[in-house]
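[Target chain]
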Amino acid sequence: MSGVILQSVISCPHCGCSSEETMPLDACVFFYDCPGCKALLRPKAGDCCVFCSYGSVKCPPIQLQPANASCCGHRDH
Protein backbone atom coordinates (compact mmCIF):
# COMPACT_ATOMS: atom_id res chain seq x y z
CA MET A 1 0.00 0.00 0.00
CA SER A 2 2.89 2.34 -0.50
CA GLY A 3 2.03 5.62 -2.16
CA VAL A 4 -1.46 5.81 -0.66
CA ILE A 5 -2.20 9.27 0.70
CA LEU A 6 -4.23 9.22 3.91
CA GLN A 7 -4.63 12.97 4.49
CA SER A 8 -7.21 14.98 2.58
CA VAL A 9 -8.55 18.49 3.04
CA ILE A 10 -12.34 18.56 2.87
CA SER A 11 -13.85 21.89 1.81
CA CYS A 12 -17.49 22.53 2.65
CA PRO A 13 -19.49 23.69 -0.39
CA HIS A 14 -21.86 25.62 1.90
CA CYS A 15 -19.54 27.77 4.04
CA GLY A 16 -16.08 27.20 2.54
CA CYS A 17 -14.62 25.83 5.78
CA SER A 18 -11.67 23.50 5.15
CA SER A 19 -10.40 20.79 7.46
CA GLU A 20 -7.61 18.25 7.07
CA GLU A 21 -8.85 14.75 7.86
CA THR A 22 -7.32 11.28 7.94
CA MET A 23 -9.08 8.83 5.62
CA PRO A 24 -9.67 5.17 6.51
CA LEU A 25 -7.70 2.71 4.38
CA ASP A 26 -10.49 0.24 3.77
CA ALA A 27 -13.77 2.14 3.72
CA CYS A 28 -15.64 5.01 2.13
CA VAL A 29 -16.97 7.83 4.31
CA PHE A 30 -20.57 8.59 3.33
CA PHE A 31 -21.32 11.36 5.84
CA TYR A 32 -19.22 14.24 7.15
CA ASP A 33 -20.25 17.01 9.57
CA CYS A 34 -18.72 20.33 8.58
CA PRO A 35 -16.88 21.77 11.59
CA GLY A 36 -17.79 25.30 10.46
CA CYS A 37 -21.51 25.37 9.62
CA LYS A 38 -22.42 21.88 10.89
CA ALA A 39 -23.89 20.90 7.48
CA LEU A 40 -24.07 17.16 6.87
CA LEU A 41 -22.12 16.50 3.66
CA ARG A 42 -22.93 13.49 1.49
CA PRO A 43 -21.17 12.30 -1.68
CA LYS A 44 -22.16 13.88 -4.97
CA ALA A 45 -23.96 11.65 -7.47
CA GLY A 46 -21.46 9.19 -8.94
CA ASP A 47 -18.92 9.56 -6.12
CA CYS A 48 -18.38 6.86 -3.52
CA CYS A 49 -17.58 9.12 -0.55
CA VAL A 50 -17.24 12.67 0.74
CA PHE A 51 -13.48 12.64 0.14
CA CYS A 52 -14.03 11.95 -3.58
CA SER A 53 -16.61 14.76 -3.73
CA TYR A 54 -15.14 17.46 -1.48
CA GLY A 55 -11.59 16.38 -0.60
CA SER A 56 -8.25 17.42 -2.01
CA VAL A 57 -7.36 13.71 -2.40
CA LYS A 58 -9.61 10.81 -3.44
CA CYS A 59 -10.20 8.04 -0.88
CA PRO A 60 -7.65 5.21 -0.49
CA PRO A 61 -9.92 2.54 -2.08
CA ILE A 62 -10.10 4.71 -5.22
CA GLN A 63 -6.35 5.45 -5.10
CA LEU A 64 -5.68 1.70 -5.11
CA GLN A 65 -8.00 0.91 -8.04
CA PRO A 66 -6.81 0.69 -11.64
CA ALA A 67 -7.90 3.49 -13.99
CA ASN A 68 -11.65 3.64 -14.76
CA ALA A 69 -12.54 1.39 -11.82
CA SER A 70 -13.99 2.23 -8.45
CA CYS A 71 -14.45 0.79 -5.02
CA CYS A 72 -18.25 0.89 -5.12
CA GLY A 73 -19.17 -0.12 -8.64
CA HIS A 74 -19.25 3.40 -10.16
CA ARG A 75 -17.16 3.90 -13.27
CA ASP A 76 -17.17 7.69 -13.54
CA HIS A 77 -14.38 8.69 -11.14
